[in-house]
Every structure is written in structure tokens, then in C-alpha cells.
Automatic annotation (TrEMBL):
It comes from the Eukaryota. This is Uncharacterized protein. It comes from Araneus ventricosus.
Length: 38
């Protein structure tokens, strides 16, 4: 089971990597976040 806090921290890490492209690659970021945080 994925904890919200851990998911949020991982998601923030992805945001820091792509702060500008995040809004444009939202779907890719979500998939990357899920795959990374599993």
C-alpha cells in the first residue's frame, strides 16, 4: 500500500526535476511517479 506522505515526497522530487515541463507532461509525470513510488 502506498502512503500519501511518501507519494507526496516522491511527487515533489519529480516536480523539482521538471518544474516547467510538469504541466505539459502531467500524464507522463503521473505514470513516472507511480512507477517510482511503488
Amino acid at each position: 500500500m502506498l502512503y500519501p506522505e511518501a507519494h507526496e515526497q516522491c511527487y515533489r522530487s519529480v516536480e523539482e526535476r521538471r518544474p516547467i515541463e510538469r504541466w505539459h507532461l502531467l500524464e507522463i509525470v503521473e505514470l513516472h511517479t507511480i512507477a517510482t513510488c511503488q
